[in-house]
Write a structure and sequence with these properties.
Number of helices: 6
CATH class: Mainly Beta
Largest sheet: 16 strands, antiparallel, barrel
Radius of gyration: 22 Å
Oligomer: single chain
Number of strands: 19
CATH superfamily: Carbohydrate-selective porin OprB
Low-confidence stretches: 1-52
CATH topology: Porin
Length: 474
């Protein structure tokens, strides 16, 4: 134990040193340039010329440190995937180096080197609307690295009205036609393209809960870190957009895809997937933008289907111990979602997500939830003269199908749940946060979450989770 504690201490010290070096390097380079690295060049004389204003390259860094803990909770029994009753505290740390380069007209290359360390509460188990969007299901004590993103984006414009596209971690600044076709292919997150929301999308600066970061019923294609290989296409018009994506699934539940053997350090020898057209996830999303009284709003309907060697809840019920691994067969899962956001005033916005999936087969990637609904509000700090601060409040209600309930009652386990028994009740989660922004893009957040019927079990909880988060980006 002393040797293990020493190793953990040294690894965390090394990670903090790496973060400090990143901060120092960013400050030095910014000072040398005397301007932000992502500042676009001066506007061209001809406003229709996209090439004259296009950013050739950019780079960004972010680091996020999240600490979470909860006091003891009541429970009539405890299973293999249950949240411990004694209470605990955990931390997660992430560090990303982003780089983008313009290859040719309309083409961008982007890469993201991710370093992560830490664990979610109970190794990210026991709560379906999980409380930390930075808690990967691949926790580690010593820091690990991953080439999380490695993709090319090709945009084809169709002329007409021009709009400015700002620089960010995965985009080069420049002018783009408002009507355009964009292809993205390589390794990235399907969440980079789909199910975005202005008020509830980024667990590093906004809400932390998984069900507020994405639609919890969309078993979105990804490895255990949230990334995979795929291709997507988007047709964007001034008032609407249509997107389609095709992504690889791993051949193990909540596992790593084949490229993780080489792009993750240390490598994952068990990583793998089947033929590209055998284990996959497809998603299609529409987007309709509108305005009410001068305040913008967006509605995004989404549909998805996954194909792979999945287990069946119904088939597992006839096996002692509900061993679902003995029921694997070639199956499909599908579902639908709706994502909406609406500005109420310049500083207040509301949002909602609802989702449903068929719930017959085991979840493979994200959560075990079969139906969900969320509603929330986000407020900027202008009213108290803190224009860069933000506060939010949201609620989530999630549940599962009858056959999924029977499977858990029989002792089955899912990605996040499995108490050995079940007195079913829909899981209810509430989250509220305040994000305080300091100069130099430093964020400090206090967050509280209340979860009733964790993992759909009325015999356990409720639980209160307290969090603090530090985030810096450049």
């Amino acid at each position: 134990m002393p040797r293990f504690a020493c190793l953990r201490s040294k690894s965390i010290q090394a990670y903090r040193l790496l973060t400090a070096l990143a901060l120092a390097m960013a400050a030095t380079m910014a000072a040398a340039q005397n301007q932000p690295v992502d500042a676009p060049s001066a506007a061209p004389a001809n406003p229709q010329s996209a090439e004259a204003q296009a950013q050739t390259w950019n780079w960004h860094i972010q680091t996020t440190i999240t600490g979470q803990g909860y006091p003891s909770l009541s429970a009539k029994y405890t299973g293999v995937n249950s949240l411990p009753t004694a209470g605990q505290a955990r931390e997660t740390v992430s560090l990303d180096f982003f780089g983008g380069y313009r290859l040719w007209r309309g083409a961008e290359f982007h890469a993201d080197l991710l370093t992560w360390q830490g664990f979610g509460l109970d190794d990210t188990l026991g709560i379906e609307d999980f409380t930390n969007g930075e808690a990967y299901k691949a926790g580690t004590r010593p820091p690990h690295e991953d080439l999380a993103r490695f993709f090319i984006r090709q945009t084809i414009g169709f002329g007409g009205k021009i709009e400015a596209v700002p620089s960010d971690q995965l985009t080069l600044a420049g002018d783009q036609p408002a009507t355009r076709l964009t292809f993205t292919f390589g390794r990235y997150s399907s969440k980079d393209i789909f199910d975005n929301n202005a008020y509830a999308n980024d667990p590093r600066k906004q809400f932390m809960n998984w069900a507020l970061v994405a639609n919890a019923t969309w078993d979105y294609p990804a490895d255990a870190l949230g990334y995979t290989t795929g291709i997507s296409v988007e047709l964007k018009r001034p008032k609407w957009a249509l997107r389609y994506g095709f992504f690889q699934l791993s051949n193990q539940q909540n596992g790593f895809t084949a490229e993780d053997q080489f792009l993750t350090w240390p490598g994952v020898p068990t990583a793998g997937d089947d033929r590209f057209f055998h284990d996959w996830g497809m998603v299609v999303e529409g987007e309709r933008r509108y305005s009410i009284g001068g305040h913008p709003g967006v509605v995004r309907p989404l549909a998805f289907v996954n194909q792979g060697e999945f287990g069946s809840y119904k088939a597992a019920l006839s096996i002692p111990g509900a061993d679902i691994s003995k029921t694997y067969a070639h199956r499909h899962s599908y579902g639908f979602g709706l994502n909406a956001e609406q500005e109420i005033t310049k500083n207040i916005g509301v949002f909602s997500r609802v989702g449903w999936n068929d719930g017959h087969n085991e979840a493979w990637v994200y959560t075990d939830i079969d139906h969900t609904g969320s509603l929330g509000i986000s407020v900027k700090g202008d009213a108290w003269r803190r224009s860069r601060d933000a506060a939010g409040l949201a609620v989530v209600m999630s549940g599962i199908t009858k056959v999924n309930q029977q499977y858990l009652m029989a002792g089955g386990t899912g990605i996040l749940d499995g108490d050995g028994n079940l007195k079913y009740g829909r899981e209810f989660a509430l989250e509220t946060y305040y994000d305080h922004t300091f100069p130099q893009q430093i964020h400090w957040t206090m967050d509280y979450q209340f979860v009733a019927n964790p993992a759909f079990n009325r015999d356990r909880g409720p639980v209160s989770v307290f969090s603090t988060r530090f985030h810096w980006e450049f």
